[in-house]
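Hello support,

Our group uses your service weekly, and this is the first time we've seen a run hang past the timeout. The protein is Fatty acid hydroxylase domain-containing protein. I'm not sure whether the cause is the sequence or the server load. Input pasted verbatim:
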Amino acid sequence: MPKTVKNYRWQTAPAQYGMDRRPIALGAGAMDTLFASGSLNGSVVERHWNTLLDVIGDDPDFLYTWGLTVYVHSFFWIVGGLFVLMDITNRPAFLRRYKTQPGKNEPIDWTDLRRVMKTIFFNQIVIGIPLTFAGYHGTIKGSVPHVRTLPTASVILRDLVVCVIFAEIGFYYVHRFLHLKPLYKLVHKKHHEWTAPFAWTAMYCHPIEHIISNMIPPMIGIQLMKAHIFTTAIWFPLVIFNTIRDHCGYHLPFFPSSEYHDYHHAKFTECFGTFGYLDWLHGTDTKFRKSKQHQRHRTLWGIKSARELYPDS
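Update from on-call engineer: The timeout came from a worker crash unrelated to the input. Re-ran successfully.
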């Protein structure tokens, strides 16, 4: 375990850790004004953060690689597992009404489940770990902010916005590329074996797809902004939760709708993005907009299911 540095009360992070980064287009004064608000220095968040680092260590080489790997993969299995448990047991019974494709994966076949888990373990361990190390050591090693000096809330928000933009652009165009006939047959068809997906199938795919679609797009913003490990630890669980929600097979109240990507798995030919803006721009959602799933594609603010509010007939 990396040795922990106890004396961490810095007022300003050393320049060698990359905190003195200012875009050329803006002067230092403008940047100071823009990002001075929302400081976390001396806050309860910083105190808890440094307590955590006292336990796990503050070596960025460890945190950006092994630390994130264990953290993100654990999040995937635990959160996704809650949905999978519902599909295995068909309990609680009152949540069955929120299935996007009733009768599918009720329950999940154990043989299929083992096949999915085997593929995911391969992608996470054999593909994911080496790519994580290569991505960190090849791009941002030595230039990331000091891990014990938290960024301001506005810097965190800025970096997250950049991550969202580049992840959406990367995922949409890579996804459309994978739907070209030769690539679809050789690579992407594996993921589309599930016309009615469940949570863990979010990472059930060909290794090439795992690299260019699942891993690289979410990394782009982190590497461009040289984001703090704290920001990164917020961003990657958001990515994982979003893809679990998209594939979970449930449209639950008070959660963002899963109808959009569920439609893509059912029909294959539309809804390639996450948020829909690029699909609208390129006209790859025209059939979806005329569908019953589009009517259901909204956040539910009551206990009635989307199918009850917008029945098939």
